[in-house]
Amino acid sequence: MIDQVDRELQEWVKSVVMGADVVLGPPRQLEGKYGVSLYLLALINPRKRG
Fold first, then answer.
1. Contact yes or no for 22/10 (Cβ under 8 A)
2. Is the pTM of this model over 0.85?
3. Which domain of life is it from (predicted)?
4. Cβ atoms within 10 Å of 15's Cβ, excluding its own
5. How far from 27 is each of 19, 24, 41, 42, CA to CA, in Å?
6. Which structural domain range is residue 34 located in?
7. Are 39 and 26 in contact (CB under 8 A)?
8. Over 90: is that where the pLDDT of 43 sits?
9. Domains identified in the chain, total number
10. pLDDT tens sequence across 7-33
11. So what's the pLDDT on residue 10?
């Protein structure tokens, strides 16, 4: 399921930002390239918020 979401996000970004490399990882993977980094920083459970 997560792999499918990853692919859908990558395809969407490619359709919006023509010619950009799309990586699933930290921005340093794009050094010297034109692209977009999709990097998950944190997950929260909205039901458990204060």
1. yes
2. no
3. Bacteria
4. 8
5. 17, 9, 12, 15
6. 2-48
7. yes
8. no
9. 1
10. 999 999 999 998 889 999 998 988 988
11. 93
